[in-house]
Structure to design on (129 residues):
């Protein structure tokens, strides 16, 4: 049994159009998502360096069980290190909208921003720089 020191162990971001959402996140983070196809759910997994220690997550098309929202539900913050401004700069061209531009939380807690993705989800970014 592994013990994790993370508040989050897994996240799922709803996608009304999984191909469009995949292109959006691959563009803004400049990485490839791994496809997983199951009978009632399609996912695109975010890559992890260490599956036993990292926090994993995926874009999800579950036929309506997951629904994108700009206002409701939890707000997750994805890793924008080393500087989330680099990610923010790619969001408009990828089909998203910046809701809260880069702002310093505090000197010891780094920076945050919030955007709407291509599916209408409200998603946060966090970075040290």
């Amino acid at each position: 049994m592994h013990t994790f020191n993370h508040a989050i162990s897994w996240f799922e971001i709803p996608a009304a159009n999984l191909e469009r959402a995949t292109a959006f996140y691959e563009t803004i983070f400049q990485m490839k998502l791994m496809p997983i196809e199951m009978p009632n759910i399609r996912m695109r997994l975010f890559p992890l360096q260490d599956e036993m220690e990292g926090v994993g997550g995926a874009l999800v098309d579950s036929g309506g069980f997951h629904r994108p929202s700009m206002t409701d539900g939890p707000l997750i913050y994805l890793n924008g290190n080393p500087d989330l401004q680099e990610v923010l700069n790619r969001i408009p061209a990828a089909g998203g909208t910046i809701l809260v531009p880069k702002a310093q939380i505090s000197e010891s807690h780094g920076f945050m921003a919030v955007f709407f993705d291509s599916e209408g989800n409200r998603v946060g970014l966090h970075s040290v720089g």
Remarks:
- Strands lie at 10-14, 34-37, 42-45, 56-61, 77-79, 97-106, 110-116, 122-127.
